[in-house]
Inverse folding.
């Protein structure tokens, strides 16, 4: 009986402690709620069969046949998109995200009998196009080509079309003419197949880098709470030196972390039967993105550590914020699975900027326009966090 | 013996003249017209109940807070080196005692050879030789207290401010720390010793400054204050003097 009584009192005490730990409660209740909300929106399109919009599509006509021109013009008039002069123009439009897909109608698209040949049509896809939208586009293109073929057959049959077409077998009307060739922009630019490892490594790399908040908070909160920050001030150490030292140390930690993750993708994943992570990256852009991402991650961690009161508080806030930021940015669910609205939201998160820049580096041959704006946003975000952290630490040095 | 509150700034290493300080959004002043002078070799006991303004005064003296009125002066030809020993263990428990000392000495503008010399010197003076390679978190309370003081001594201070330096240590360690403070004073270091332990002040200090609600209630030579005046009569000990001025109600 006494043990039961003790257990009840212990349970009551635990509830009282929980009630007085709002950060712990926030992790338990608020974070999952936010996560469910974000993921529900992010995955909205993947499990629904209705209302899958066709991606904006660019058309390149290499076949001078007027039927091809009519097909492209009809399509653009009905579904939007644009006509483009060449494959190079299409590649540029995909990179600039003016279009998400491209249709290239190759020479001799129509055979001698005027039948369209699917294997003379190439479908190019941006790295971020939704798979469902790409699937619908493929189906619509095949259907449109059948319509062209049917029109041609009907025209040849003249007034007896209904009799002829009614008696003809499907194979006579629609002989197999090869499959539509589909290629992702990454495959076009790198001449390699798109793999899950190439797509997911940048995302998890960024996610891991932002978890630097845990060690930073551990040290900074200890320094503040036991008066070490104040003591350092009496040694003539200014907040900028403290922040500078931490920035250097934890950015270096980030880089080691990054190296480890690259090695896992390059060596461990293939050993276990997965695809290889290709590392012949544009190293200049890669280093710029690493520097900017690392600076943003460490400065955000410093900000969280500077404004939280205990390690538990920092771990809860920092961990929770990272998970939610990651979900918004497209770390958990690839952006191409998100509806358009969520994709726009994800472009306004620091992890989203990092992901854009890193994917540009990992999935192709990026240029300054793809990397520099994202790196600048990350560095600006880092500077803002650093300035706010400096203010907090300056105040805390005097508050011990 | 110069009065702790009224000594002329020119004769002192560090002095505060009619210093007042109020924290933002606080109605009550944390310090009101507090004056204090610390001369070479002088030991001043800083006494007061919790919340009386002792820590605020130390923060003002070491330059961490700027008073709204009054001023802090450094005497002598160069600004006095002021070091502070906080009440908490303000160092890194995950580092060894030597690593902690090496880190803090590296924050000072001294040559590498001077750094090594200072570390060896404080290890010897605080009797930390046996624990130099031990992680600070694995050291006893007494060793950690000595390390806390050793870090301040790395600065070779003219003025040393100690904020309850003997909390949680055994009698042996306390006796050692008090001896060490006395020795520093004999060597010419000015000491400001904040504590709740009256017997420590009696053992170490020749002056006292008694604060409450940010005001100086009593200051000056310890023996003179114990003799009292015609109105209060004499006091049996420092605790009786303290209670006479601060009264019995609990503070926090």
């Amino acid at each position: 009986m006494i043990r039961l009584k003790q257990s009840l009192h212990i349970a009551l005490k635990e509830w009282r402690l929980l009630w007085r730990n709002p950060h712990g409660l926030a992790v338990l209740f608020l974070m999952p709620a936010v996560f469910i909300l974000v993921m529900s929106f992010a995955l909205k399109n993947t499990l629904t069969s209705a209302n899958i919009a066709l991606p904006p599509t660019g058309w390149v006509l290499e076949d001078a046949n007027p039927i091809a021109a009519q097909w492209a013009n009809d399509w653009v008039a009905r579904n939007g998109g644009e006509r483009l002069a060449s494959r190079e123009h299409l590649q540029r439009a995909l990179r600039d995200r003016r279009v998400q897909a491209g249709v290239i109608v190759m020479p001799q698209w129509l055979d001698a009998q005027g039948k369209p040949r699917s294997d003379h049509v190439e479908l190019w896809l941006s790295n971020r196009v939704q798979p469902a939208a790409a699937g619908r586009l493929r189906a619509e293109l095949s259907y449109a080509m059948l319509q062209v073929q049917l029109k041609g057959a009907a025209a040849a049959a003249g007034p007896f079309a209904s009799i002829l077409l009614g008696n003809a077998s499907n194979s006579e009307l629609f002989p197999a003419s090869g499959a539509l060739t589909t290629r992702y922009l990454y495959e076009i630019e790198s001449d390699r197949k798109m793999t899950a490892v190439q797509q997911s490594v940048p995302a998890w790399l960024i996610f891991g880098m932002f978890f630097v908040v845990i060690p930073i908070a551990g040290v900074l909160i200890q320094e503040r709470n036991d008066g070490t920050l104040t003591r350092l001030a009496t040694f003539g150490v200014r907040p900028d030196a403290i922040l500078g030292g931490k920035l250097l140390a934890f950015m270096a930690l980030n880089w080691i972390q990054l190296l480890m993750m690259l090695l896992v993708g390059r060596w461990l994943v293939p050993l276990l039967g997965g695809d290889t992570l290709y590392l012949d990256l544009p190293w200049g852009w890669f280093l710029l993105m690493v520097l900017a991402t690392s600076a943003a991650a460490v400065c955000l961690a410093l900000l969280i550590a500077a404004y939280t009161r205990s390690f538990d508080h920092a771990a809860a806030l920092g961990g929770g914020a990272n998970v939610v930021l990651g979900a918004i940015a497209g770390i958990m669910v690839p952006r191409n699975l998100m509806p358009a609205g969520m994709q726009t939201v994800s472009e306004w998160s620091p992890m989203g900027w990092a992901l854009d820049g890193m994917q540009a580096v990992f999935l192709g041959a990026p240029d300054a326009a793809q990397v520099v704006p994202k790196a600048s946003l990350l560095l600006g975000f880092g500077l803002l966090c650093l300035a706010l952290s400096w203010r907090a630490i300056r105040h805390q040095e005097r508050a011990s | 013996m110069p009065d702790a509150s009224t000594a002329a700034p020119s004769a002192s290493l560090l002095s505060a003249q009619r210093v007042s300080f109020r924290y933002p959004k606080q109605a009550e002043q944390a310090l009101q017209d507090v004056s204090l002078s610390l001369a070479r070799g002088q030991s001043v006991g800083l006494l007061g109940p919790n919340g009386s303004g002792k820590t605020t005064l130390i923060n003002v003296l070491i330059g961490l807070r700027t008073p709204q009125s009054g001023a802090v002066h450094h005497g002598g030809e160069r600004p006095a080196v002021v070091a502070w020993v906080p009440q908490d263990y303000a160092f890194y428990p995950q580092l060894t005692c030597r690593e902690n000392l090496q880190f803090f000495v590296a924050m000072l503008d001294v040559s590498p050879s001077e750094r090594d010399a200072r570390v060896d010197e404080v290890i010897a003076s605080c009797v930390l030789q046996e624990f130099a390679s031990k992680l600070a978190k694995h050291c006893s309370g007494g060793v950690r207290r000595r390390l806390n003081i050793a870090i301040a001594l790395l600065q070779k201070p003219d003025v040393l401010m100690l904020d309850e330096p003997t909390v949680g240590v055994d009698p042996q360690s306390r006796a050692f720390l008090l001896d060490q403070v006395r020795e520093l004073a004999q060597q010419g270091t000015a000491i400001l010793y904040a504590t709740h332990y009256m017997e420590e002040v009696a053992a170490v200090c020749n002056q006292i400054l008694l604060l409450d609600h940010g005001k100086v209630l009593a200051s000056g030579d310890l023996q003179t204050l114990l003799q009292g005046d015609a109105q209060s009569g004499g006091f049996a000990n420092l605790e009786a003097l303290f209670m006479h001025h601060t009264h019995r109600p609990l503070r926090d």
Remarks:
- Confidence is low (pLDDT under 50) at residues 1-10 of chain B.
- The CA atoms of residues 142 and 171 of chain B lie 9 Å apart.
